[in-house]
Write a structure and sequence with these properties.
mainly alpha
């Protein structure tokens, strides 16, 4: 079976998307860390740290998916883990939205 044929299966696409997601998340972690170093603290610094922690856990979930899902025989546990990741993804979006709202609010005050 050629590499192209194995990638075009649903399982192959899963691994391709997970690998791409892990690379993107790692890049986001690097960017967020550099931004955090430029922020003196306060509300923005606190929420950047919280966002970085969420990004770290998403990176671990994506990077670990190759090894963990492959060896997982219990489909119910697999569904639970996927649900957990999606749930915390929703929480992450709440954190990002709250951060952006307050950042824009602070920028409007300093005009």
């Amino acid at each position: 079976m050629s590499i192209i044929t194995s990638i075009l299966t649903l399982k192959g696409l899963f691994y391709l998307l997970v690998a791409a997601g892990a690379i993107i998340m790692f890049a986001n972690m690097v960017i967020a860390a550099s931004l955090k170093n430029r922020v003196p603290g306060g509300f923005v610094g606190k929420w950047l740290t919280i966002m970085w922690v969420f990004m770290f856990f998403f990176f671990l979930a994506e990077a670990g998916a190759f090894f963990f899902i492959k060896s997982l025989k219990n489909m119910a546990l697999s569904y639970f883990i996927i649900g957990l990741v999606l749930f915390f993804g929703s929480i992450f979006i709440v954190v990002v939205n709250r951060f952006m709202y307050h950042l824009i609010k602070e920028l409007e005050v300093h005009k």
